């Protein structure tokens, strides 16, 4: 089954934005992470509506992160993406009234609910500042300078 990597992509974009002083244009971000600028604009629209980024118009315009990285959590970003489904599995609903199906669905439903709550709690405990610090530590450990134009080329 193909995994949905959009959350990872959004976090990727935000962390790159955090490394750039001033507003970032969609085209610039698209070149850095090798993605279509239209996809960047779609991502930014949702983040702007959630108050995580702001848009600046004009020649030197683009987008900037609206809040301190220390207060933006993975859960905030997840919710800005309209809280997509976390799991690919679900309950079967092919035999209404079947007591076996009801029993199985009740057990699976509880397990899914508990797993979802646990994951969302974990998302709430991880900030973009923590991810940024981890990124910086990895760059230092690899003896690299933080130059966003070459990070992906290395």
TrEMBL record:
It holds the Pfam family Rrf2. It comes from the Bacteria. InterPro entries: Tscrpt_reg_Rrf2, WH-like_DNA-bd_sf, WH_DNA-bd_sf. GO terms for cellular component: cytosol. GO terms for molecular function: DNA-binding transcription factor activity. PANTHER family: HTH-TYPE TRANSCRIPTIONAL REGULATOR YWGB-RELATED, WINGED HELIX-TURN-HELIX TRANSCRIPTIONAL REGULATOR, RRF2 FAMILY. This is Rrf2 family transcriptional regulator.
């Amino acid at each position: 089954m193909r995994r949905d990597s959009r959350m990872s992509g959004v976090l990727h974009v935000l962390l790159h934005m955090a490394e750039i002083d001033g507003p970032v244009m969609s085209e610039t971000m698209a070149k850095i992470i090798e993605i279509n600028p239209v996809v960047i604009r779609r991502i930014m629209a949702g983040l702007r509506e959630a108050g995580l980024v702001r848009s600046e118009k004009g020649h030197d315009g683009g987008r900037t992160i609206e809040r301190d990285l220390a207060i933006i959590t993975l859960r905030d970003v997840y919710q800005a993406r309209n809280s997509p489904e976390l799991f690919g599995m679900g309950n079967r609903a092919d035999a209404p009234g079947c007591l076996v199906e009801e029993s199985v669905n009740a057990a699976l439903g509880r397990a899914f609910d508990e797993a979802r709550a646990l994951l969302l709690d974990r998302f709430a405990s991880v900030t973009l500042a923590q991810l940024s610090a981890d990124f910086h530590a990895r760059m230092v450990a690899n003896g690299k300078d933080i130059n966003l134009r070459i990070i992906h080329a290395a």
